[in-house]
Amino acid sequence: MEHPIHSFMKISMENIKDMVDVDTIVGQPVNTKEGTTIIPISKVKFGFASGGTEQKVEKAQENQQPPFGGGSGGTVSITPIAFLVVNQDEEIKVLSLENQTHIYEKLIDFVPELLAKVKLVSPKMMNGFGKNNQKE
Q: What are the distances in angstroms from CA 71 to CA 6, 14, 48?
């Protein structure tokens, strides 16, 4: 027979699993009249504790399980850390609410510029590729 603490743990973990969703971290997009889409990004922390004890009974029957007392609890903390802003031209900007995300912000701001440069250089590289290696 399964120990009662397993039931506590199973129910608690199933409830936490139901709470954990991609929409918890990356929120639902909000579309403005101007065509801009704003997507909230949050930091989510979950805490969980569970415990129990069995009581000793002096005159317990042989097959009788001792009385069990237990409990579990949890906490959730959701902190907004940034907003992704996508304009009509599909340019993406990060509006950081934390100082620690400045590196990601710079990377995301740099990606469109990098892609534009790769598009310009790529045809030139492909046209010239192999010409230096050919024997005349």
A: 11, 15, 11
Dihedral, CA atoms, 95, 100, 102, 104, nearest 10 degrees?
-90
- The DSSP symbol for 35 reads S
Domain chopping of the chain, boundaries: 4-128
Quote the CA–CA distance of 77 and 47 in Å, as a whole number. Answer: 9
Burial class of 4 by CB neighbour count within 10 A (0 to 12, 13 to 18, 19+): middle
pLDDT one-digit tens code per residue, 78-124: 888 888 898 888 888 888 887 655 666 666 777 777 667 666 665 65
What does the CA dihedral 54, 58, 63, 67 come to, rounded to 10 degrees? Answer: -30
